[in-house]
Amino acid sequence: MLMHIPFNKVYLTGKEESYVANALKGDKLTGGGNHTAWCKENLTKRYGFDNLHLTTSCTAALETAALLLNLQAGDEVIIPSYTFVSTANAFALRGAKIVFADSAAANPNIDADTIEPLISKRTKAIVPVHYGGVACDMNKISDLAKKHNFMVVEDAAHSIDAYFYNRPLGSLGDMAAFSFHETKNITCGEGGALLMNNRLFNERTEIILDKGTNRKIFAEGKTDKYEWVGLGSSYRMAETSAAFLRAQLEELDGIQKIRMELWNAYYSALTDAGLQEFFSLPVLPHYAKHNASVFYVVCNSRALRDKLISGLAAKGIASAFHYQPLHSSPFYSAMQQKPVVLPNSEKFGNCLLRLPLHANLSKDNIHYVTELIIKILN
Ligand SMILES: Cc1ncc(COP(=O)(O)O)c(C=O)c1O
Questions:
Q1: How far is the CA of 59 from the centre of ligand 1 (A)?
Q2: What is the pLDDT of residue 31?
Q3: Ligand 1 centroid, distance to 87 Cα (angstroms)
Q4: Residues 31-71: pLDDT tens digits?
Q5: For all residues of the chain together, what is the average pLDDT?
């Protein structure tokens, strides 16, 4: 019999329905109710985070960060090419020039040793993306930001419960954006969080998240006028989503335990299979404690990657490639006078293959997938 293994399936903890039903009984559906407060407190206490806001998505959190930077036309933001479009879009929307950096040879994260030549007087920020919850080299990136006086916005979309040495990802830049999209370790369908580590921005963040108004100080009775005071948008998470997220956060440790076991099961089965002539396994820098957000292999060619995708699909297993490098996207290339060449990003774009990984899977499922990979290759 054919076994069907979806690439992703939301893991439900069992409490989502009752928490959402409870949120519906409250008088605060727009957010800012008990469930929002619970999630914020849980995340800030658990990780020692400073000032955290729940948002409608990671994209919304990145757009808020971009607004906070007060970017002017011609300002530059350094971004890895191997990332999701939102990382770049958020800053491009504010008129910034996106300067793409290459990935490291060993993993899809930005190659910290290639950043300095990309810095100019107009560089206002860098946005490291911790791919698969594996930390970027944040010491090198923070040193460059200090030396050249620009901000660091961590794209921590994949990075809940992942660490750089013993520091949680998200806590290392001036700001960070997390995702709770349904493909992430914990979810509420669509959702995110903006973490502020630089207090400089606290007041303006409230204004931006309140659609450009002074709603917060008005509600606190500090002004008698409720007015438009700056740029802003509609980025706050609704209370029903926060209720769903709470159910997931309560089970975060359990979910992480399952995911780590599955990730390790893939890693050891594929190591034992000795398939290095076909692909390489994830390379984890010594400073990174990852969170089993993604399990990937990097195939030796695109043809081999595509053969694995179709071979697995024929047996009911959904696997997936990941980002198409943004420097060679139709939108970006059309704006360039000469093509940008970033060989490592291109290699990951062509050769990276993600295997199914979600907390609904069992070790038997992993065994089935790895055995099938061995069969397809032999
Ligand atoms: C690196 C990265 N940044 C940002 C996002 C956008 O996240 P969201 O869907 O929560 O807006 C994604 C989406 O998967 C992502 O992979």
A1: 6
A2: 82
A3: 7
A4: 889 999 999 999 999 999 989 999 999 999 999 999 999 99
A5: 97
- Determine the Cα–Cα distance for residues 346 and 378; give it in Å rounded to an integer: 27
Assess whether the C-beta atom of 181 lies below 6 angstroms from ligand 1. yes
Q: Which CATH superfamily is domain 252-377 in?
A: Aspartate Aminotransferase, domain 1 (3.90.1150.10)
Fold of 16-250: Aspartate Aminotransferase; domain 2 (3.40.640)
- pLDDT higher than threshold 90 for residue 267: yes
What whole-number distance in Å separates Cα of residue 296 and Cα of residue 208? 37
> Is the CB of 83 within 6 Å of ligand 1?
yes
Distance 179 CA to ligand 1 centre (A): 6
Residue 1 has pLDDT above 80, yes or no: no
First to last CA, the chain: 22
Looking at the DSSP bridge assignments, the partners of residue 213 are 228
CATH 3.40.640.10 residue ranges of the chain are: 16-250
Give the closest residue (by CA) to ligand 1 atom 8.
Answer: 58
Looking at the chain, which residues constitute the CATH 3.90.1150.10 domain(s)? 252-377
What burial class does residue 227 get, using C-beta atoms within 10 Å of its C-beta: 0-12 exposed, 13-18 middle, 19+ buried? exposed
